[in-house]
Amino acid sequence: MDKPIVFKQVSYTYNDQSPFAVGALHDVNLTIPQGKVTAIIGHTGSGKSTLIQHLNVLVRPSQGQVQIDEEVVTAQSKHTSLKALRKKVGVVFQFPEAQLFAETVIEDVMFGPQNFGASPEEARQIAQVQLERVGVGPDLYERSPFDLSGGQMRRVAIAGVLALEPQVLVLDEPTAGLDPLGHHQMMTMFSQLQKENNLTMIMVTHQMDDVGEYADYVVVMEQGTVVKTGTPQEIFADPQWLSQRQLGLPKAMAFLEKVHQRISDLPKLTPAPISVDQVADYLVMAKQEQGQKSATRPVTEEAIQHG
Amino acid sequence: MDKMILGRYLKLDSWIHHLDPRTKLLASFYFILIVFLANNLATYVALTGFMVLAVVLSKVPLGFFLKGVRPLILLILVTVAFQVFFMRGGQVYFHQGPIMITQAGVIGGAFIFARLVLIIFMSTLLTLTTAPLELTDGIEHLFQPLTRFGFPAHEIALMLAIALRYVPTLMDEAGKIMNAQRSRGVEFDQGSLMQRMKSIIPILVPLFISAFNRAEEMALAMEARGYRGAQGRTKYRQLTLTRQDLFAWLGLVVLTGILLYLRQF
Fold it and tell me: pTM for the complete prediction?
């Protein structure tokens, strides 16, 4: 897939043309860069999940058009090549463990590839690779997925999506409800996978830390439309604007803000550091610079207290 | 499924909405019963007049009722067609081979049509104006006298209340699971009948599993909050009959009287 995904004036209404019609998206214009990590953030109910359902044509726009690869999807378009499109775009839904159904773990992961025409042997091979990737060992292959722990079920479900070998990976809060270690492992795994295969990755998240650590591009949604797009630097440059939209800064950035408030002569960096690593690098550098200064001008305790 | 109107509740502030759910339940059943009293044009006009009054009082837009009828339109048309083609009597309008359309047929068809539409309108009115929990409260009260004979009125009402509460949740969940499996390449609307039936399994299994899990969690949460069954429970929502209910019943009694009178002609 070499083309970005483009939304042109997309609107979507649930229960269209019924008395219970609810508008979910309106006038969405958006270009999702290819081969990058895009984070979609926004308040609960801002239309994030509806937006990602357009990405593999689970819903068709009520108005406007979505261009995915060569395919242009509009309200009228009929789909013969829909299946091919669904193989290109893999979606990990919220709480994906709810989609497990097969008798054994391995069969469940094999299910996707087989639907797309892989032979059982091929499917088994793919399943083994993907299960290994998510950290599920061969001793679990023949177990029932319902015997596993919540975290393991999540891994198996994610392997089931990765087994489609998609070129676009869509993640709807993939780590919601995982423990910190599981969260870290999962995000690292996704990040590696994305880099190795140059995937287009789209993640919906409420975790600004993840946005800061992993995203190249950020889309902010509010009340069913896109209100801002840009690099994480651009988006996080205005904390007030974000907090008005019930959003915040990554912890590392918020921490740096506090440091800046206390030490006013600390030089500010543009673009501002965002991830934990960047903030740490910046502070080390600042300390070294200060060390050089203090060699010529001794710092008294008083001077530190008054900045 | 989202276009289904029958069985949904529309929150409005109207005369009908404020009626006691027991009144609404019994009155709907009663109305459906007296629909069968009607046997000529005048009686149907009277019933329709009453229905129109109820619809106006409920403030529910007419569109909802028309959409409520829509899923059943085929059933209605087939029934009407049977009447028109097979009832014989009176003046013959059309006759060719075995097909014969007579006056009795046409009138019978029209009556059946009116009857079905009236019944559907009334049931739609009941569910559109009564919140599910009100309905179960009403049912519990109405079954209360039967507890003397060992009938588990409270348990049945509780099950009803929980079932109704979880209908939208389970529908939601089914939709989500369906989407997830579609993303994994399942196509629900393609292939042979056998294939289509097979494609239901990846939805049904997770749905049942999640229903089991939900039931377990819910039972635990209820016990943790001190639920011990019907004995010694008080009620948060008290049902009280008001003057409005009296008027509603008076209306129905008057309607019955009118119907019985008009029937003779």
Answer: 0.77
